[in-house]
Amino acid sequence: MRRTTLRTVSRRRRARGGVVSVAAGLALVAGLLQFTSEPAVAAGGGDMPTVTLPGTHRAAPRVGFLTAADSSGYLVAPRPYDAASPAKWIGRDGSTREIPSQATTIARNGGLGLEQVPETAQTKNAYDIRHYATNKVTRFNVPAGDRVTEVFAENRLLVARQVGGKWTLHLLEMPPGGGQLVDRPVTGLADDYSGWAYQAASDKRGAAFGYHATDGGNSWRAVLLDFDTASVAYVPIDDFAYLEFPRLAGDTVSYYAIGKQSGGSHRLYVVDRAHPEAPGHVVDVPQSGLRDARAMGGWVIYPGAANEGIVAVPVTGGGPARTVLAASYHGFVDGDDGSFFIEGGTDADHWTVQQVTLGADGVPVFKPVGAALPPVSVYEAGGIAVDQGRVLLGTERNDGYLPYPGTDLTASALSLTADGRLTVAPPQNQGDLGTAKSNPLYGVECYGECLRFTGTGEGGITHPQQEWLGDIAAASASYAVERYGDVMQVWNGTKWLARGPWSAAALWGNTLWTARTVSGKPTFETYALPSMRKLGSLSVASCLPTDLQVVGRYVYWSCGPNAQAVVYDQKTRVAQNVPRGYARLGDGYLVSQDNKAGKLLITYLKGTVPAAKVGTKDLGPLPSQPYAPADRRGRFWNVDRFGGPVAYLTASGAVTVKWPQVTTSPLAATDATVPTSVAPRQGGTFQGIWHLNKPTATWKLTVTNSAGAVVRTLTGGRAHGKITATWDGRAANGTLVRAGTYRVKLTARTANGTPRNAVIYDKSLAVR
């Protein structure tokens, strides 16, 4: 059986004599996307139909991203070393202050951060100590050759310096009122100091750190530094191989102690800070909580109960363990005054940053710092697509306790009634987003950029084939374009069809649009898929587009979120300037982000609404979830390119869906694979596949003989962008039809439009 693929062909030939203009060039490819004779469908009048999908609360608590803290507040930074992600200081009074990039932060001490200043001619070997509560910075211009350690406090910085061939320590101090930097040599340091300070912990009084001795045996030393006296003392390590990860808490220092024997025991070792040379106490702590354990007064606290609840046990033993906090997450953050901080509470609805201090009876107590963190909506992590009349949402499971319990994909069908009322069906679970059914290699927990959804045009979403390397630039029908650095590749679900250094790419059905520089000029090129037969080429504006989108007759391009953006109507040959910013093109409208104003905007395109309504209007608030990326398309809002609505996440964690009232394109196939002949007597079966530009309510396939008599009728219900019809070559009574020429006709009715059927396909079929 020979199969052919339905292709659309340009009606015009390219003009000779050079590169054509944008308008004329786009007119050349206007015929690439042919439409059936069905009249355009206009939605009903009145206000924009709207519906809300409420987001239930998950059982898991909100992640506060606690990073540093002191008595005045705390710092949250989800990605502390990501230059694009600013941190935020939250005061006890509820005030907030954005803190510059944490990418240069090398250590923290309570509410202070030690930052390395990017090197310039004026700032060589410069370091800042930032006070997060006030954003005040104290700068240290460190002498050349000094090695900065991670030990510091307000106005104090410890450096290692070679003197006479040996490494020494110096405490640099900046007077509170400013002036000349004071350089204090540190006393009590052994001659075997190697010039490094590992696993340093600092507070207001001093610091604890370790180093490998220069005695040839790589012996480990545990050191305590006192800022006031600028002197060090050593903690005897004879009974252990290593004392690591020191924690300071007032008069107490605790260590992660590793036994000398191979595979030796790991325990907590607690010493008196004023007398480190005296024997300390060894405390047995479960391995799961040992790294996060802290000694405070006469107690050791660690996460050891259900849901990471905090347990307290006496340092000296002899008393029962007690649970002092019902649940927690992500371990302790050290203050600079002997207290600790942690995210915790009783449940997801009663969760906050807690400060740990000693109560009147000497037992650790937990007190909330500021307001409780609000509960988490199951939709809040992001992931939104609106595709062929379905809302597709990344939905966190609400049956897990700890943060990030896993994410599923849920889908809800939308319906627009004749009287303009928008309704939504209950969400249906489509499965775990951690593993895509189409690609078993896609086996990661889906959060962050993994939740940037791109609709397929078949009522679903697609993931990159190599999830760690690329992202989806475009998808439609059977095809997807994936971006890998400076290269894009076209995929048809089975194999790679092409790759190229395109700055932008778009898909509409079986037509690929690309943007690249040709002979020094920014150029659009179009190709038929899967053959990659070139259809057209044209010059575009003076800049090279970095964003290209095509929906039916409309072409959108932009040279960046802060550059000019245009929508061109291939049918009317009219170009329309549209707002700058990240945008999504729909059928008859464009939605864009106004990050400065915090709004989503909708631009109605010419010819789709009355002339008085053409232009840009406010659509709704821009979703502004904590640490949302600048580009929130597909994460927190999206557009149905297939004649449908807009969906965006609200501040409450619900999803708002709005259906713009515009004239949409008529129902048509954007791609199809249909056999031209079939041999049922040899077991052959006719199977036609049509990809459509909008969802259908019903469809009908009619097979007629050469005399025009109907021999078989197949019908189907609602379809989200794809119709597959199979005919076994038999008449309605079950007998095989005679060999000859038959006519196959597919008609369908749109799901949210006129009740009239549109002809999708009508061609002859040879039956052998």
Characterise this structure.
With 768 residues, this protein is mainly β. Helices cover 2% and strands 49% of the residues.
How would you summarize the topology of this molecule?
Elements (H helix, E strand, L loop, with lengths): L2 E4 L15 H8 L11 E2 L7 E4 L12 E5 L2 E4 L10 E5 L4 E4 L5 E5 L2 E5 L9 E6 L4 E6 L5 E7 L2 E8 L2 E8 L8 E4 L12 E5 L3 E7 L7 E7 L4 E5 L6 E8 L2 E7 L7 E7 L8 E3 L3 H4 L3 E3 L2 E5 L6 E5 L7 E4 L1 E8 L5 E8 L2 E9 L5 E10 L10 E4 L2 E7 L10 E10 L5 E3 L3 E5 L2 E2 L2 E5 L27 E6 L2 E6 L2 E5 L4 E5 L3 E5 L2 E8 L2 E8 L4 E7 L7 E5 L2 E5 L6 E5 L4 E5 L4 E3 L3 E6 L4 E6 L10 E7 L15 E3 L6 E4 L5 E4 L4 E2 L4 E7 L1 E2 L7 E7 L3 E9 L5 E7 L5 E6 L12 E11 L7 E10 L1
Parallel strand pairs: 60-66
Antiparallel strand pairs: 1-59, 2-58, 3-57, 4-5, 5-6, 6-7, 8-9, 9-10, 10-11, 12-13, 13-14, 14-15, 16-17, 17-18, 18-19, 20-21, 21-22, 22-23, 24-25, 25-26, 26-27, 28-29, 29-30, 30-31, 32-33, 33-34, 34-35, 34-36, 37-38, 39-40, 40-41, 41-42, 43-44, 44-45, 45-46, 47-48, 48-49, 49-50, 51-52, 52-53, ...
Q: How would you summarize this macromolecular structure in one to three sentences?
A:
This protein is an all-beta fold.
